[in-house]
Each structure stands twice: as structure tokens, then as C-alpha cells.
Amino acid sequence: MVNGEMVVSSLMTGRLGPVPDPHDAVPVGWETPGVHGEVGGALFDEVVAELEVLDPALAVSATGALPGLRDRLEQRASAAAALLDGHEEGAVLRVPKSRLADLQQCERLAVARHARPDAGPPGLAALRGVALDRFVLLEVAQGPIVDPVEELLSVLDVQGELDTCDQVVAAASADPGFVDDLAAAAAAWRGVPRSWWPRLQSPAVAQLADGRVVCSGKLDVELGGVLTPHPGVVVEVKSGAPRPAHVEEVALYALLVGWRDGVAPSLVARWYPDEPTACMPVDTGLLTSAAARLGDAIEQWAQLVVGRRPEESPGPWCRWCPHAAVCPSAAATAGPTPGGLADPDDEVEWEPPGDEVGP
Amino acid sequence: MTPDPAERAELLAAARGRLQASLDDLLGDRLRASGRPPRDRAGWIEVRDADMVGRCAARFAHPAPSQWSDLTTITATRTLGRLVLRDRDPSESPDAALDRILAGADDLPAWLANGLEPLDRSATAAVRTSVFAWVADALTAVRGRSDLAWDGATERVTVPGRAVQLVARWDARLGSRRSPTTLLVHSPRVADGADDVVAAGFVALVACHHSGVAPERIRFSTAGTGATRAVAITGAVLSTAVERIVELVGLSVEPDEAPFTAGGWCRWCHLLDDCEVGRAVVAPPDAPEST
Questions:
Q1: Which of B93, B121, B141 is the last residue of a domain?
Q2: Stronger pLDDT, A169 or B2, i.e. the higher one
Q3: In chain A, is it the N or the C terminus that has fewer CB atoms within a 10 Å radius of its CB?
Q4: Pairing relationship of beta strands B154-158 and B164-169 according to DSSP bridges
């Protein structure tokens, strides 16, 4: 039992009926020959190779740790929510993945981006991050990409992302091939078998303290898991350079998915174009550290909401901080960004609709 | 809640009677109408399930003009997701079921078939992906229950004699189509206990209007949580919804009385240009003091 609910893997498997062996299953898509990359399936092969050498006991013990971690976080979230009493009745304290990341970088950045959630890293890099997510979608759901910009526009249009469409058109008029490399790299996603139920942009949400605290993330790709006979895998798609914070992001996802499904995923991974997939087994330590960071962020945000002054922690993020022009710490960091480009995947994160409080 | 359908029918009838009487008291000769609302809803008030938990009265009292837009993943996903879960053979993957449904577009609602028809291969892939994620999330939320009938709908009920239409969506049911015992609502909205009560009363009142029998309970699942929470339908729960409907209709007929309340919704609000409290929330703040 997890959180009072029966672990559902076998139940789900039985309900769904027989599922073919993943290596025999028909890949999704494939109808049209593509011009970008002839050999697909690299990512899936890497993931399967990692799973084959994984000790299954790790995921079992990680799953066993989920209720205790939840209980401890519930206590911290309840205390944080209590801080809000008298501040704004009925409002919800939200700590989505993006806010957690902001808080770990700089409290003032988190406050500023709460007020201006559209403020983010520089345009073209962020746009390439958006494009890569859609190219992965296309490779998984339809097969090879023939015309990257046109297909990107089609996807964004039907997703209602009309402003982003305009940005793509502008970028493509300056450089028609500005995302060709990403479209080619996304070919690594071909051939994920249907039996693994590849899901893109699926939500994982923890409602704590009777719903007064909400922690959320939107997963780039999920494979396997409780709906299938396969181990669960969460993959974060990254268009920028690897960063330590990305490890913390996927650890948070493992925690949220574990609570959502009642079963911890076996593996979390980060996929960067043209790099080997960075896989990490999910164990109790990974989940414990993720829960601790989340608890810290909830407490931080609650304190900021009720009026504590945000601390400034200058860094590369100052370059896209809405307060950069008025923050003395940001002025002190003017000049070339340490460590290279801003993180283009640091886009505005999905949050479930609802009420929210903020400083 | 009583399992006796006759008692549940009485409960619903009583709530409907209270709603009618309260609106008569409130409106007098205003908003008299017969028949169905025009396509553009001009002159009519529409109260939706999402309005049950709205926190800004002005936003409801001054609704955005209704606009027809092309089909998007947002508008198509829930309906297609329900169809997949409704029509899927137990041995069939959702992906295959969706293929079959899209191939037989003639059987889809006209708005959906017409919206899907012009989509190219890439746009269709985006829709498929969104639907698949919804289906997986809904299945996770109900923990594999196979006795749910996913034949939910968007129900529209016109208050007799009034230009007031109530709109509620639900996704799945337990029990018969005629007299479901439980209705499931799977939505992205995060709500708290009090919100659940008023929303449950509203869904019960609207979704079961035609059958005339209140369900025993409404069950909500919030996308991504993998869990559901139930509200038993009682006279008190239905009354809460009736009071909220009357309150909202009152705001609509006296829109200048509706107060503006700032919140997370302000960023996307159509009233933002004319709303001081909203602009204060959304505008880049003055540099705060910091340590």
C-alpha cells in the first residue's frame, strides 16, 4: 500500500490486456521517409540498456519511501500554509518546478518572475528549446520530420501558441535553418514502441496541506510506468548545455510521479541533442533529497509571500531577471554570462489553473 | 446521500425549485426569455462550472465577447480523450483506439470533425499527443477502475423562462446513464474543499437535469495528481450551488456592483486594461527592498 492506495501496476496491466514484447511492437509513425537522420531509436536503446542493468530493488525501496517522504513534506507544507493565514483567504501557495528552480538561484529572481512570468531567458535560445520539445513530439507521434519550420508552426498553431508562431516566423526569416540541427537530433526519438505508451507533456502535481500548497511539473516525456507492463522512465528534453540544476529537476519529477502513480519510476534521464542520454536510477536517496529541496522551497516561498525581503544571489540568471535594471546585485554581475549561455530550457512552467498568492 | 433514486429525484427537484424561485425574486421581469439562446449568446447569461470557483466578481459580470476560434489541442483534447476511453476495446491501446476514432471522423461531433479536417499531419500529431496524455492521466487518476463509463458530456440547461443557461462538464459515470450514482469530473483545475462542494452541487444540478435524479456523489480528479476526491450530494450541497448561481446572475444584471479582485488570473484577463487592482498585480513591481 502507498498512501493508503493499493499499488496499481498489476491491476492496470490486467485491465489493459496483453501487450506485445516491446522489441516486437510496431513503432509509432514511420509513414514518411525523412530527410533528417536515417537511423532512429538511439534514445530508446540507451534507456533499455540502462534498465537492463538496473537493480529492480532500487525502485521497490524508493516506492516504499514515498509515503514517509510525503508525510514529512505534508508537515512542512502545512506549517508554510499556516503562515498565509490572514494574508489572502482561500488562496493557494504554488511552487511549480520553475519557481523551485528560481528560488534556488535567487529569491529576488523568483519574486520578479512571479510578477512577470513571461520573462525568461533570451529569445532565440528559448525558442530553440520550445522547438526541440515539439520536434521530439513529432518524432514520437508521427515519425520523421520533413520540413522543420513548417511542421513546428503547424504544431504551435494547433496548440494555440500564436505568439510563438510569430517568433518562429521572424527567426526563420533571418535564418531559415535555425532549428534544422534540432530537428535532425530529434531523430533519436524514433521507434519508441507503442507498448511503452510514450506520453509527452503529462502533468505531475502534488497537492499538499489540504490543497493549500501545490507543487507541479510537466514532464517532457514519460515511458512505461503503471499503465504498462514496463518500468517507468521520465525523460527531460534539454536544448542547452548540461547543468547541475537539471539533475535536481528530474529528481523532483521522480518524486512527483511517484506520488501521482503510487510507484516510483525506475529511471530518470536527461536528453541533450547529440549527447549520450544521461540516465539516473531512482533510489531512496534521490527522492529524499528532492523532497528536502521541495520542502525548503515551499517554506521560502511562503515567507516571501507574507513579506520577507527576498535575498539577492547574483548569477547568470541576472541577465533575464525582470529586476535586472534596478537590482544592485545584478549590476555587479554585468558583463559576459559566467558559464556561457543562459539556460534555454528555463521556460515558463505549466501550472494547474486556480488561485494563487504571491508577494 | 440516500441511494434511493426517488429520494434523490426529490432532492434535485427541490433544488431546482429553489433556484427558480430565487431567480424570480432577483430578476422580476428582467431576463425573460423562452426557447434556446442565440448562437452568440447575446442577451443571455451563461453560468459555467468553472465560474463556481471564480474569485473575481467583475470578471464574471463583464464576460469577454464570445469568439469563434479554430480547433486547438485545448478545445479538442477532453472530448477526444473521453471518446478513446469510451470506445476502446480492453485489449486495445489508447493510441490504436485514437487512430480508429480519427479515421472514422464522420462519427465525431460536427464541431470536432470540422476542426480536425483541415489539420495537417504535424498538427494531428500534436492533437494525438495531447489526447494521449489526457487519457493516461485520467486512467491514472481512477486507478484502473474498469466499471466507469466514459460517456460524459457538456450539459447545457436553460432555466425555464429565463435567459440564463447553466453549463457543466463531466467525464465518466458509475451507474446507469439514466440515473448515475457517481459522476467523475477530470479537470486541470486545482481546487480546495470548499470549492469542491459548490462545484459538485452545480454539476449535480446541471448534469442530471434531464434525468431528474441527483447522483449520490460527484468525484473530482485534478490532472496530474493521480487521485480523486468525492463530495456526497446532499440538499445542503445543492443549496450552496443554487446560492452561487443566484449570486452570479445578480452580478450579471448589476455589473457595476461587481468588485474587482486581484489574483493569478489577472495576467490573462480581458479587463486588465481597465482594472487598477489587476494592473497592480501584473505590472512589473517597483524594485522591492532586499537584503
A1: B141
A2: A169
A3: N
A4: antiparallel
Chain A environment of B278 (Cβ under 8 Å): none
State whether A248 and A181 are in the same domain. Answer: no
Q: In angstroms, what separates the C-alpha of B121 from chain A's closest C-alpha?
A: 8
A3-12, A118-127, B17-26, B282-291, range with the lowest pLDDT:
A3-12
DSSP string, B20-50: HHHHHHHHTTTTB--SPPPTT-TT-EEEEGG
pLDDT of A345: 56
- A72–chain B Cβ distance below 8 A for any pair: no
Domain coverage including residue A267: 38-119+196-332
Contact assignment for A8 to B194 by CB distance below 8 Å: no
pTM: 0.86
Tell me how far apart the alpha carbons of residues B289 and A330 are, in angstroms, rounded to a whole number: 14
Whether residues B153 and B12 share a domain: the answer is yes
DSSP string, B214-236: --SEEEEEETTS--EEEEE--HH
B164 and B47 Cβ atoms separated by less than 8 Å: yes
Q: Pull the grid cell for residue B225.
A: 495528481
- R_g over Cα of chain B: 21
Which of residues 16 through 45 in chain B touch A, CB cutoff 8 A?
none
pLDDT range class, residue B165, cuts 50, 70, 90: very high
Task: Please compute Rg for chain A using Cα positions.
Answer: 21
Of residues A34 and B231, more confidence is placed in: B231
Closest CA to A318 of A50, A122, A161, A54: A122
**Which of chain A's residues have a Cβ under 8 Å away from the Cβ of B140?**
226-227, 260-261
Distance CA B113, CA A103 (A): 45
Higher pLDDT, B4 or A343: B4
pLDDT more than 70, % of chain B:
93
Say whether pLDDT at B112 is over 80.
yes
Contact A137 B133 (CB under 8 A): no
Q: What are phi and psi of B169, to 5 degrees?
A: -115, 140
Mean pLDDT of chain A: 82
Q: Do B185 and B99 share a structural domain?
A: no
- Which pLDDT does position A353 carry in this prediction? 56
Grid cell, residue B40, equals 452568440
